[in-house]
Amino acid sequence: MAVVESPLAGKILEINVTVGQTVNEDDEIIILEAMKMENPIFAPSTGTVKEIKVKAGDRVNEGDVLVIIE
Amino acid sequence: MYKKQIKVYRPIRSGQFTPVRNCSRQIKMARRHFTLKCRSLKEGQRIRLRGKEIYFYKAVDSSNIIARSLAQSGAADGIIIVCETQTAGRGRRGRQWSCPTGKGILMSMVLRPQIAVPAVPLLTLLTGVVVAETIHKATGCTVGIKWPNDIIISGKKVCGILAESSISSQGVPEHVIMGIGINVNLEKSDLPSDCMETSTSLKMELGKPLSRLSILREFIAAWDEHYQAFLQNGNEYIFKKWKENNITLGRTVTISKGSESIIGMAVDISDRGGLVIRLSNGTLEEFMAEDVSLGRSHYQTI
After folding, report:
1. List of domains in chain A
2. Is B169 within 8 Å of chain A by CB?
3. How far is A30 from chain B (nearest CA, A)?
4. Is B116 an interface residue toward A (CB < 8 Å)?
5. B179 to chain A: nearest residue by CA?
6. pTM here?
7. Are B266 and B274 in contact (CB under 8 A)?
8. How many whole angstroms separate alpha carbon A11 and alpha carbon B256?
9. Is the Cβ pair A11, B290 closer than 8 Å?
10. Phi first, then psi: what are they for B60, rounded to 5°?
11. CB-based burial label for B58 (10 Å; 0-12, 13-18, 19+)
12. Which ipTM was obtained for this model?
């Protein structure tokens, strides 16, 4: 199981996956915005999206769990 | 969905790369642009300006896309893409961004900063500082930064910045693409109708055209100075320079947060670059990504 944490504080701009979706390693799964910089978050491994902990517009802090992939 | 591709080209000589595995569309694009550089002195021409490697294009879909492709194929830190026009230029959140051919500076830089991940977004503040100082030096105009990096002259926006990072799934900054569009020689009639009252150009402010190459030269000099100082002195350097150039702190601002608007006094920027607002009940709140408006009445006093 891979827990995807936010590397930065910012706001969730886009979520590009849905629960149950298969993702490959390095697929772009979320875009996080901070200071007008778009920061894509990539899947750390191939698997299935088990849980999405955030929604577009949410504010997150560094280390917050965004997505769980198994 | 775009799949990240990195280090798929191996440099074989200056400016040329050879693939090390099967090409995806993005990688083919990178190779095509490198090839164009060699075939024509205009399309994809490479020059050096103040030590920087710069690739010129007449028309591209987006200079950020070209820069991203080059970064993914191993382009070095500091490479700059400059184009005359973009067919699919965009601002933040997919907003369209357009500029008539040959009238603006449309550029994207590839950066490979060896800094901690939380400091990566601060590069947009630094870019705002560099653009503000560049324009002030080139024109003498009073230039200010609206948080985080809108460049304002006479209350109107003159430059847009679109930044994209690539942070590995292991939490390592791989590259940053810093896209910058400066309205240089646009007439008022060149501006999109919905921007006529909120945007300006350097020519509109000065009443005469300016050399875009001279401004680019000033930008590169200012970038090198401030970027190196940041790498040597850390985040505090950015905060100090940003505060010296900002027109946001000390003003009543409106924050657009989804469908609601929050009004408060901008009192500081936080140690991660967020805008700190004092709300009407006296509490402080930090904003990291929201749109900020200073209001027209405040612009007029600048």
Report:
1. 2-69 (2.40.50.100)
2. yes
3. 10
4. no
5. A37
6. 0.85
7. no
8. 13
9. yes
10. -135, 165
11. middle
12. 0.92
- What is chain B's pLDDT, residue by residue, as a tens digit (302 residues)? 333 333 333 334 444 444 444 434 444 454 444 333 333 334 455 555 556 788 888 888 889 988 998 898 888 899 999 888 888 766 666 666 677 888 899 999 999 999 999 999 999 999 999 999 999 999 999 999 999 999 999 999 999 999 999 998 888 999 999 999 999 999 998 888 888 888 999 999 999 999 888 899 899 999 999 999 999 999 999 999 999 999 999 999 999 887 889 999 999 999 999 999 999 999 999 999 988 998 654 444 44
Helix (H, G, I), strand (E, B) or coil at B30: helix
Q: Are B60 and B74 in contact (CB under 8 A)?
A: no
Amino acid at B267: V
Beta bridge partners of B107: B82, B180
- Residue A50: CA count within 13 A, CB half-sphere: 10
Which of these, B127, B147, B143, lies nearest to B135 by C-alpha position? B143
Q: Residues 34-63, chain A: which have Cβ within 8 Å of B?
A: 34-45, 57, 59, 62
Cα distance between residue B269 and residue B300, in whole Å: 23
Distance from CA of A43 to the nearest CA of B (A): 7
